[in-house]
Amino acid sequence: MKLSLIVPVLNEETFIPLYLESAAAYADEIVIVDGGSTDRTVQIIEAYQRHFPIRLYRMNQQGLPYTDDWNESRVRNFLIDQAVGDWIMNLDIDELMDDRFRDVLPDIINRTEVDIFQFPFVNFWGSPWTLRVNSPGDERWSNDITRMWRANIGIKYRDEKHHCTLEGSGGQSIWSIPRDRVDINIYHYHYAIGRKIKYNDNRRGDVNVPNNQGEPDWGFTHAEYSIATAPFTGSHPEVIQQYLNLNRP
């Protein structure tokens, strides 16, 4: 049984090495679509192709990121169609599996009674030592997330322009498909390292960025809900530990 990892990317030169070094420990193939990067993303991927089982495709995104200008479901469904593994895992470029995943994967990938797996989703906020957690009216941070499913059972992405969702064959809800929870964290570093806030990526107004310059205000008070945080007391994946040591102030 083999696992295909699928991921769209666009200007992610910070995350590419971290993601690929981590994923190479468990994925049988890594299928990537580049959306038209103008930084060193493609060059870095091509360098890793000499060592890791990576297939790279290009499909330029049009218009503003994170808006209906994009056609994200088309990109993600293309990735599903290219995958050749028995299982597919959609892990975005700023998401890393806990290192323990490589140890439990052989057991879960051979299960026959389950077609979908969900994982705890851990969101960092402003730094790798602060977590964003659920609060009343903002309950999207401390939940499980579906990220792995059996190939060739008809699971695709609904026709949506951005932040698209999975559905089963014929529009079936994925919640009706046999599933289980794997108690292995997915760590989301989008707001913790690298640029943290990307172009057009502050749509909910959770961060105050004075004049679009300088360090964002991660303690910003939102008008509609409380931005709740908690200290992170766990251990980062090894690649993040190395990154943090190399980038100490």
Topology (elements, then pairings):
Elements (H helix, E strand, L loop, with lengths): L2 E7 L5 H9 L5 E6 L6 H8 L5 E5 L13 H11 L4 E4 L4 E3 L3 H9 L6 E8 L6 E4 L10 E7 L5 E2 L8 E2 L11 E3 L4 E3 L39 E4 L6 H9 L3
Parallel strand pairs: 1-2, 1-4, 2-3, 6-11, 6-12
Antiparallel strand pairs: 4-8, 5-12, 6-8, 7-13, 9-10
Helix pairs in contact: 1-5
What keyword list fits this structure?
single chain, about 250 residues, alpha/beta, nine-stranded mixed beta sheet, two-stranded antiparallel ribbon, 5 helices, about 20% helix, globular
Describe the protein's architecture and organization.
With 249 residues, the protein is α/β, with parallel strands linked by helices. Helix content is 18%, strand content 23%. Strands 1, 2, 3, 4, 5, 6, 8, 11 and 12 form a 9-stranded mixed beta sheet that branches. Strands 7-13 form a two-stranded antiparallel sheet. Strands 9-10 form a two-stranded antiparallel sheet. Helix 1 packs antiparallel against helix 5. The longest helix has 11 residues. The termini are far apart. The relative contact order is 0.18. The model has no long low-confidence stretch (mean pLDDT 92).
> What gap, in angstroms, lies between the N and C termini?
44 Å
- Which word captures the global form? globular
Number of helices: 5
What value does the Rg take, in angstroms? 18 Å
The whole-number mean of residue pLDDT values reads: 92
Helix content: 10-25%
Estimate the strand proportion.
Answer: 15-25%
Let me know the largest β-sheet: 9 strands, mixed
Secondary-structure element sequence?
Answer: EHEHEHEEHEEEEEEEEH
Derived structural class:
alpha/beta
* Total beta strand runs: 13
Low-confidence stretches: none
